[in-house]
Amino acid sequence: MAVTPVPELARRAKAASRVLATASTEQKDEALLTAAELLGERVEELVRANAADVAAAEDAGIAPGLVDRLRLTPDRVAAMASGLRQVAALADPVGEVLDGWVRPNGLRISRVRVPLGVVAIIYESRPNVTSDAAGLCLKSGNAAFLRGSSTAVHSNVAIASVLRAAVAKTGLPEDAVVLVEDTSRAAATEFMQQRGLVDCLIPRGGPSLIASILEHATVPYVIDGDGNCHVYVDAAADLDVAERILVNAKTQRPSVCNAAESLVVHASVAADFLPMAAAALRDVELVGDARARALVPGMGEATDTDWSTEYLDLKLSVKVVDTLDEAIDHVNATSSGHSEAIVTTDVHAADRFLGEVDAAAVLLNASTRFVDGEEFGFGAEIGISTQKLHARGPMGLRQLTTAKYVVRGDGQVRG
Amino acid sequence: MAVTPVPELARRAKAASRVLATASTEQKDEALLTAAELLGERVEELVRANAADVAAAEDAGIAPGLVDRLRLTPDRVAAMASGLRQVAALADPVGEVLDGWVRPNGLRISRVRVPLGVVAIIYESRPNVTSDAAGLCLKSGNAAFLRGSSTAVHSNVAIASVLRAAVAKTGLPEDAVVLVEDTSRAAATEFMQQRGLVDCLIPRGGPSLIASILEHATVPYVIDGDGNCHVYVDAAADLDVAERILVNAKTQRPSVCNAAESLVVHASVAADFLPMAAAALRDVELVGDARARALVPGMGEATDTDWSTEYLDLKLSVKVVDTLDEAIDHVNATSSGHSEAIVTTDVHAADRFLGEVDAAAVLLNASTRFVDGEEFGFGAEIGISTQKLHARGPMGLRQLTTAKYVVRGDGQVRG
After folding, report:
1. Over the stretch A142-181, which tens digit does the pLDDT of each residue have?
2. Which of A388, A399, A400, A401 is most worth mutating to test chain B (most B CB atoms within 10 A of its CB)?
3. What is the pLDDT of residue A1?
4. Contact B222, B282 (CB under 8 A)
5. Which of A131, A216, A330, B93 has the fewest CB atoms found within 10 Å of its own CB?
6. ipTM of predicted assembly, 2 dp
7. What are the distances in angstroms from CA A68 to CA A257, A337, B132?
8. Are B362 and A389 in contact (CB < 8 Å)?
9. Could you read off the pLDDT of B205-219 as tens digits, one per residue?
10. B303 and B208 both lie in a single domain
């Protein structure tokens, strides 16, 4: 089969997006539920396609952990289907009136939530993203324009084919879900340059993908970036609360972006807190500055690089500060703008940290691990934005929409 | 004097932005009012600096119209000062609570409006943009990082110096306003690449500037794009209303982005409406399709290029369509996504056009000329966005902000 060129695929997605933009919630939910059902019915076909990817990955000597992320089992397919059912149950964001007012000349202006149009998602490895992303796009009235990795291409093609069949079955255009099967680097670059056809590009992957977006993309994009998250234990912290939060933020799931990577402690509690923390984090490698090391025997030395490193592993950098100002400055200087927490009982310190730290989410006496779409109550998320434009923090259905002004008059002209 | 490198200037703006982010409304307003006063006091110095730019432009043989746009008179300086006073009188968007809810585990989440940080603006010709942009940035708690054109450099330096002095006088950091004096192309490219320091870049200029942004920018940006605006006269239009709106949209100020560039007429009223329209638009060059030309003697032929051209001049393309669907398809195919109007008395046609046309603003029975910040009641605008991410349509103070999640707990950890 000849490979369809990327611009032609983008045009198909754009045409479908016009229909999806005005599809009713009922129609979209029916498509989602039908897709969930069809994933169940065609599970064997999906697992078979996936086996080809898994075999190729093993032949290529890919690390077992990564191969496992790639693997589709009947349970994992069932989880994808259940994800689509969850999205069907969420409120439809489209049509929400965000604002409305009347001008002195009688013009009635309202700002109404509408779909973005074509949402392009470029992602690595895990094939469930194909279904999860398509589901969120569909519910929010967008066409999903997808480009997965070469390691998962057979799985992605199979999943997309099931989703397209389901959408077509309910009378919506099958191009609501368009997968670029060409996994070459050239196709990836082309994918980022469909200006006028793609309304928003969301990369889900590591630093090299982000660098490629910055270099090549000509379409608007939202960066789902790193999380170099800090927990600051203030002079007025309840140290038991601080320990509980630190342990949870660091160890509950170290491989994710909202896990803590750095501990900042006020000097006045460091002598009490650091030994407690070190004992509670027995399995975590600690690296610190001179004052932290003096309080915890065996702690390694933190280099300048450590302060801005997202370990995604059982490792934590530790810094002792003399003042709240120093803590805020250090966090702002090294933060990736994801999630930053303070533990304190002091209202003034809390207000200053929450007000002055520049991040998508700032937390008082709570674990950074809460910063995601599920925990925030959005029901599902497509990523967590660390940029400030358009979407900041967890991105749910609303963040896959834009607004348009609807202006109603009765013949007004400008004087 | 040695030229300060662009990254160093960006760092200064970033440092200032930290202070501005938590400045009180009172402080910011005082800075704006002081700047307005100082512009008045130092008007001679401004006019003298501007004379150098005007002389250089005249020597270079720049067209008189452009030289006039460049010129500063005492009246124009007074208008800049009055603009700053107007911005001082607007409501401060910072601190607005956009949403708030409590999670089942007791976490209290709120979404709070905060400044973007450093807003970079690159602009052409008119020196008043220096003052207008700085004023809007200051009020919204952002540092203004500015890069004007070489033709206005003396004027811009003088204006920035007055604004910086005023800001410093009120105790805020003078780097709240930072102007890049280096007007080389290399400096412009560097200006677009201060990733990590610039939070939002807004270009104000023509297609070549936009192309340069798409090619070089690595910071997030909002495009203030073209306006290829249509007026669609429906089968059920009141033709007198249609004529009034069309004349206003086309001729009230043809050189701006919200002026109409194209007329689309339903075939059932074309024979009545087109001769009326042609008579009312005597000074406007009309080019049309075959059916339009058959109804208006002397009308030129529209080429494919015409349908997507923003003339910014007394010229209008004219198309006859058989159905509302054809009108919507034509508008969506050729629109630049700015402002699109329908004239009709038919509720069903109105709903379909307003719902299906994909633009920042859709209008019913009103002139496209109303789509700007002043007319929408925002008090002032920094541009009109034709992209869908972050800001769409007129950009006022709110569009110069982002949000952050503030999460308050009492020791919650994730299970």
Report:
1. 999 999 999 999 999 999 999 999 999 999 999 999 999 9
2. A388
3. 52
4. no
5. A216
6. 0.93
7. 20, 30, 56
8. no
9. 888 898 999 899 999
10. no
Q: In which residue are the tokens 């074509």 written?
A: A118
- Residue pair B375/B260 in contact (Cβ under 8 Å)? The answer is no
Q: Is B333 on the interface with A (CB under 8 A)?
A: no
Provide, as residue numbers in chain A, all residues whose Cβ is less than 8 Å from the Cβ of B356: 18, 21-22
User: Does residue A125 or residue B98 have the better pLDDT?
Assistant: B98
Considering the domain architecture, whether residues A33 and A99 belong to the same structural domain is answered as yes
| pLDDT tens track for B46-88 | 999 999 999 999 999 999 888 999 999 999 999 999 999 999 9
For residue B139, being part of any structural domain is answered with yes
State the residue for tokens 């490698």: A285
Residues B276 and B399 in one domain: no
CA pair distance A287, A282, nearest whole angstrom: 13
Partner A contacted by B366 (CB < 8 A): yes
Contacts of A414 in chain B (CB under 8 A): 248, 252, 367, 369-370, 375
Burial category of B165 from C-beta neighbours within 10 Å (exposed 0-12, middle 13-18, buried 19 and up): middle
Assigned domain for B390 exists: no
- Residues comprising chain A, all counted: 415
The reply to whether residue B407 touches residue A21, judged by beta carbons under 8 angstroms, is no
Look up the pTM and report it. 0.92
- Between residues A379 and B99, the one the model is more confident about: B99
- Give the per-residue pLDDT at B1: 52
In a domain, residue A379? The reply is no
Say if A281 falls within a structural domain. yes
A153 HSE (CA, 13 A, CB side): 10
* Interface probe, candidates A244, A358, A362, A371, chain B, greatest B C-beta count within 10 A: A358
**Closest partner CB to A390 (pick from B244, B362, B389):** B389
